[in-house]
């Protein structure tokens, strides 16, 4: 028996336990070679990775140290006596092994895997094994089972409304910050739109990162309900409300591995929307040579997968294919994108047209869900709400309700202009490369970092013209961004 | 800039760095969300997982704590100033992603992946992604490329002899401890046989675990050379001499995931044999309904893969299919298997016949590599060396040279007899189940734990006869073993 000692060490996302290497009456090293131990006290039990300590100042004889995650999840107080044993791997790992061998899994098996993942019984390597096996092949019913399992293990928000709308883009296009325009338009119209967004996964920023420049986004479910009751809509960070905890764990592995399959995408998006209580959803699929979806065939395959899963989950969807040939708007990065969004909402004359057009079209599709709107009139209604300033007013109320940030963070003080190396017409802009330059410059961690695009596809430039300006908050960030742009600016001049 | 502080925390196999959560002038949490940081000082650099500390007693302002692995691999002294940055993922991860997408990789790409893995630049989840992608599909040239890459990143032993023989079994059959009989026979004949073995991966014990009961196995390359010069052979643990460090890293992930594909098996075995300086190799492939290879088709596929890779690596092989329908010998577990081996070498009348026959046959194949032996006479020569006691004498000299253990560890004091639930003839014994019972009872960590089989296939038993005896060093171990045997004893009585 070992006594629990809480160690102030945060080993996100894993549980870690700490033992003295010697003098506990068993070979700690042999436990460690097995990678995981089971810690049991009463009816509480966790699996944890084992670290060995050679200093009795950190952990004493007869003690087991628990890092923050392990301590919180075991949920027993310091000094409680616990036992440790070689962890038996979660039973559902047998299903993962079958998936690796090429089997197709049933609903109960997928449910068991997701239950164990949500309960933090899988190590990152086991999660990676599951995800990569699924990336090899995953059937449509498996994708549905995954979606359902992810909904079942998380919270669900409830709204007293027959129509709860949402809009989601699959991502991949820098600057494509339409949600922050669509949501206030829809709110101004009076539909319920409790939007939860993610932070950047592999991109320079997510909607939550951009909204955070203007307002608090770390909102509880209660606070969200309060804001929606008053303003019809909210733009919150989804991570706080634990809508799909299994998906959050999966993403913590997908992100560093940059895994992004259609099946995982559909399960992730649909599960979060169902958990958020949405009834009607517009999904934006940008299609372009450097977008996530690169051909019409792929777009149709993805559309059908969304439709199948959403229908079986009771969610009404409208799938929209949009132009994903280049970044949308001018800014890429939290502050720069927030500026673009505000320019559109304020109807400023130099607001990026493509961002405005794109957002209004999507808002129109959302408004078309409203039975009170005459068929096909969603678009003109959206345009009207934007032009009249009603959308801006709604946005200001939402910002106020969430908690307005005292001042927008400054743009990065370290800047560099990337020039055209020849004269000609811009024929292509590589979305992946633009995203990479912005990330290297520091976005989204550095809110003022990113790019501002001076020219878009179809425009004529002369040699030496500035294609875009890189912003960074540090010399190092600017250096990384410039190196990346130097290697390949992402612009093709024909 | 942060000053290195060495923390006495062993986070095998990963590098871990520790930072105060607050007060270092940047957001440590955002670094942590990225999972890995790069620590750079002068020309030294490592990637490390980041743990956040909330106690200045463990790590102070302006300091970065390095766990044992990270400290050793960065190889800079305490107090040295280092920089940290968001880790750029190893470039070779792009190839892993291509492999996940179904591509076939070339030699340079596989080489880059293995180089990064051997340099500990991959996290376990990244290694898992590579292994699972390879488990999905791997071409024969990819397997060869993997083998060559694994040899290139490790040490290579050199022997001044035209003929350096070895023998390897692919495993999966409990009790099949033939190496400890084959090696002394071959040594007695005078061939050079510097055998390196592994510890148990998924089995109740490996040859290194069993040999360790009798002699020291943790030998340096120099010590091995010294012993081989005198005794022609050695039975050492391969982990010490760093023959295939990339394979050791891969195995640290394969083991908990219980991944065991033919391709990884061939690359692992052939790379280690080439690195150990072998020129001629006998490979034992047991075939049986609960063995690793379960059909003649699979056996032939595996044989061809071994032959292709070995030939291109310049290694002469003889592949032998053997009876893998049940455990070999009577004992399963380090001490119990060592007893069986000694009984055979000592020509004791009750020595397990199947173990002796199996070992002599394999030794005969090894001796057939000797040009001085008349065609087909290897078997009779092996039998002669065993029967005459020359093999036993060679084993005693090898044990003496490696460092004889003062006394064999005792058999586990907690015992339980598993009885036949009906009368009849034994028609099958499940190798996987027998291995599992032995592991649950504590083998190999508990050297005296394991099973002793009283009956084998074809024998007649009466209801209540003892099928096997479980040994464990603790009541808990015995309990786990008995539970496992209770669920399924592994014996089928017809």
UniProtKB/TrEMBL annotation, chains A, B:
Q: Which InterPro entries match?
A: Glycosyl_Trfase_fam3, Glycosyl_Trfase_fam3_N_dom, Glycosyl_Trfase_fam3_N_dom_sf, Nuc_phospho_transferase, PYNP-like_C_sf, PYNP_C, Thym_Pase_Put, Thymidine/AMP_Pase
Transmembrane helix: is it a keyword of this entry?
Answer: no
**NCBIfam families for the chain:** ARCH_P_rylase, PRK04350.1
Q: Which reaction does it catalyse?
A: thymidine + phosphate = 2-deoxy-alpha-D-ribose 1-phosphate + thymine
Keywords recorded for this protein, A-Z: Glycosyltransferase, Transferase
Say which species the protein is native to.
Answer: Altererythrobacter litoralis
Which protein family is named in the record? Belongs to the thymidine/pyrimidine-nucleoside phosphorylase family. Type 2 subfamily.
**Signal sequence: where?**
none
Q: Which domain of life is it from?
A: Bacteria
**EC class of this enzyme?**
transferase
Q: In this protein, which residues make up the domain named Pyrimidine nucleoside phosphorylase C-terminal?
A: 425-492
Q: Which Gene3D superfamilies match?
A: 1.20.970.50, Nucleoside phosphorylase/phosphoribosyltransferase catalytic domain, Pyrimidine nucleoside phosphorylase-like, C-terminal domain
EC number per UniProt: 2.4.2.4
SUPFAM superfamilies, per database record? Nucleoside phosphorylase/phosphoribosyltransferase catalytic domain, Nucleoside phosphorylase/phosphoribosyltransferase N-terminal domain, Pyrimidine nucleoside phosphorylase C-terminal domain
According to UniProt, the name of this protein is: Putative thymidine phosphorylase
């Amino acid at each position: 028996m070992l006594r629990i000692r809480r160690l102030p060490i945060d080993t996100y996302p894993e549980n870690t336990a700490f033992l003295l290497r010697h003098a506990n009456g068993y070979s700690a090293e042999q436990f460690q070679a097995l990678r995981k131990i089971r810690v049991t006290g009463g009816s509480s039990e966790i699996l944890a990775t084992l670290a060995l300590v050679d200093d009795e100042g950190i952990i004493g004889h007869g003690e087991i140290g628990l890092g923050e995650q392990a301590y919180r999840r075991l949920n027993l107080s310091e000094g409680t006596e616990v036992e440790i044993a070689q962890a038996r791997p979660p039973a559902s790992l047998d299903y993962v092994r079958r998936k690796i061998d090429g089997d197709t899994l049933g609903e109960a098996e997928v449910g068991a895997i997701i239950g164990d993942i949500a309960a933090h019984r899988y190590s990152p390597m086991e999660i990676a094994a599951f995800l990569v096996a699924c990336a090899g092949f995953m059937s449509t019913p498996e994708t549905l089972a995954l979606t359902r399992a992810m909904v079942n293990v998380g919270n669900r928000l409830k709204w007293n409304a027959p129509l709860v709308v949402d809009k989601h883009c699959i991502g991949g296009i820098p600057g494509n910050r339409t949600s922050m325009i669509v949501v206030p338009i829809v709110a101004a119209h009076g539909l319920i739109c409790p939007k939860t967004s993610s932070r950047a996964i592999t991109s320079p920023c997510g909607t939550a990162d951009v909204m955070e420049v203007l307002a608090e986004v770390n909102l509880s479910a209660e606070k969200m309900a309060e804001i929606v009751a008053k303003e019809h809509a909210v733009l919150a960070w989804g991570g706080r409300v634990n809508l799909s905890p299994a998906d959050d764990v999966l993403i913590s592995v997908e992100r560093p591995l940059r895994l992004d399959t259609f099946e995982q995408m559909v399960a992730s998006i649909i599960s979060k929307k169902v958990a958020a209580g949405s009834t009607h959803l517009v999904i934006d699929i940008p299609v372009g040579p450097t977008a996530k979806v690169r051909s019409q065939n792929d777009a149709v395959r993805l559309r059908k997968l969304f439709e199948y899963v959403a229908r079986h989950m009771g969610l009404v969807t409208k799938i929209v294919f949009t132009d994903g040939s280049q970044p949308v708007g001018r800014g890429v990065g939290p502050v720069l994108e927030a500026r673009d969004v505000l320019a559109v909402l304020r109807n400023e004359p130099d607001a990026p047209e493509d961002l405005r057009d794109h957002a209004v079209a999507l808002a129109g599709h959302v408004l078309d869900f409203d039975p009170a709107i005459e068929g096909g009139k969603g678009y003109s209604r959206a345009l009207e709400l934007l032009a009249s300033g009603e959308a801006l007013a709604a946005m200001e109320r939402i910002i106020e309700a969430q908690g307005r940030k005292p001042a927008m963070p400054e743009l990065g003080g370290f800047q560099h202009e990337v020039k055209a190396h020849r004269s000609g017409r811009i024929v292509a802009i590589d979305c992946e490369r633009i995203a990479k330059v912005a990330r290297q410059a520091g976005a989204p961690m550095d809110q003022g970092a990113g790019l501002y695009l001076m020219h878009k596809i179809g425009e004529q430039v002369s040699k030496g013209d500035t294609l875009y300006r890189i912003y960074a908050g540090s010399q190092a960030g600017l250096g990384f961004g410039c190196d990346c742009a130097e290697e390949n600016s992402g612009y093709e001049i024909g």
